[in-house]
Every structure is written in structure tokens, then in C-alpha cells.
Amino acid sequence: MKKIGLDVGEKTIGVAISDALGMTAQGIKTIHWTEDDYSIAREALTPIIEKEMITEAVIGYPKNMNGTIGPRAEQSERFAKWLEKNFDLTVHLWDERLTTMAAERVLLDADVSRNKRKKVVDKMAAVMILQGFLDASQ
């Protein structure tokens, strides 16, 4: 049973999937979209969900540092409800505080150029979100 991890932002959605055993997460792509234009997300996610036989989704839930819910977290909640309804998946919201910053740090430590970092940071954040969920589920 594979899972998909999503880092949903205003302009991009980082995408990662798990292996069949639910042990590891691999980044697969970054979707460029206009927030709230769900047709772009549907077009990009449908072939992945179908081909990989995804049964669950884990969406980054960007709470504020004090644990409160702000506008970004509310957007993640809306996206989660849309995903659940349109793809008939079990959807989990996963606290992703500092995930993008951690992904950026990993890429910096690996000496990845700024230009390349911009292209992969959202995908890397999706990996960290999904891997955190997988690790906590074992």
C-alpha cells in the first residue's frame, strides 16, 4: 500500500511517494500550479495516484511555531478535503513546521547550487513530510 506525500505551497506542490512496504519516501516531482486552481493539481496527481496505486496521502500541515493554525494550514486543510473527496484516499495532515528549512539545510550541506535548490526544495520537503509520517507509523 503506497502513500503519497505532498508539500502544498502557493505556487508549487512537492510530491513524494513511499515504497510498497511503507518504509522509505522518494521525491518524484514538483508540480507548478496557481493556488486554488485544483484542475492543475488533478491533472498532475491523477496519473501518479493511479499508476502507483496510492491508498493514502500525507499533506504537510504548516502550523505556526506556537501550534496555532494560520492561513497556510487552513489552505492545507482545504487541499486535504479536496484530495480525499476527489481521489477517495485516506488523508493525513502532518505537522511540517521547519520542514522546508530543514530541506534547504540538507541541500546547502550537500553543496547544491542556489538554482538547483529552488528546483528541488519542495520535492525534498515532501520527502521529509512523508518520511516523518512513515517513521512515526512503524
TrEMBL record:
CDD domains: YqgF. It is an enzyme of class 3 (hydrolase). GO terms for cellular component: cytosol. InterPro entries: RNaseH-like_sf, YqgF, YqgF/RNaseH-like_dom, YqgF/RNaseH-like_dom_sf. It is found in: Cytoplasm. Gene3D superfamilies: YqgF/RNase H-like domain. The keyword Cytoplasm applies. Belongs to the YqgF HJR family. Could be a nuclease involved in processing of the 5'-end of pre-16S rRNA. This is Putative pre-16S rRNA nuclease.
